[in-house]
Amino acid sequence: MVIVLRKRKMIMKVLIHHGGKFKWGEEYIGITNKIGWINVDYVSTIELMSCVNGLGYLYVGYMWYSLNDNPMTEVKPLLDDTKVVEMQQRVHKELHKTFHISLEHLVDLLTIVKPDADLGEETDVGESEELGRDTNLDDEGVC
Q1: Can you name the residues that pair with 62 across neighbouring β-strands?
Q2: Closest Cα partner for 108 from 44, 31, 56?
Q3: What's the CATH fold of domain 11-105?
Q4: Backbone phi, then psi, for 12, in 5-degree steps?
Q5: What DSSP character marks residue 74?
Q6: What's the CA gap between 134 and 24, in Å, rounded?
């Protein structure tokens, strides 16, 4: 006789908090986007980053998550898929229904253009040691 145990299908509401700041232990002040409903067993960092990119963010410092109704309680890092697996195990054990993701932003990379350059195209400004040097200045920085 073979006994097959099936894991319960856990569907969760996903909310992404971004563009604001936390008052730790109190509240979140910023934008909250409802991403939709997901099967927690199919969550990965790649899928989460795709959702974040869909909000217009190219770079994210860290992602944090909370499984309670209040996103300010028990905030945990969501650094890689090992942390996603830990989160999935908690969901199955504790039967949570809401998945809050909070983003810590990085400043997007700066693009430097020449003053007379067409703003529609990027301009190569040379090697990093040349940045900030004006070619019209002599060695002492005088015109």
Answers
A1: 104
A2: 56
A3: Ubiquitin-like (UB roll) (3.10.20)
A4: -125, 150
A5: S
A6: 46
Average pLDDT over residues 47-73: 81
- Short-list 120, 100, 123, 103, CA closest to 111: 123
Domain ranges of the chain: 11-105
* β-bridge partners, 66: 100
pTM, to two decimals: 0.64
In this predicted model, what pLDDT tens digit does every residue of 61-71 receive, in sequence order? 888 888 877 66
**Amino acid letter for position 143:** C
- Average pLDDT score over residue span 55-66: 83
Q: How far apart are CA 125 and CA 46, in angstroms?
A: 33
Reported as a pLDDT band with limits 50, 70 and 90, residue 119 is: low
Q: Which long-range contacts (CB under 8 A, 24 or more apart) does 45-48 make?
A: 45/78, 45/80, 45/81, 45/84, 48/78, 48/84, 48/101
Task: With CA atoms as reference, report the closest residue to 100 among 12, 11, 16, 44.
Answer: 16
Q: Are 38 and 14 in contact (CB under 8 A)?
A: yes
Pairing mode of beta strands 27-39, 11-23: antiparallel
Tally the residues of the chain: 143
Q: Which amino acid, residue 4? A: V
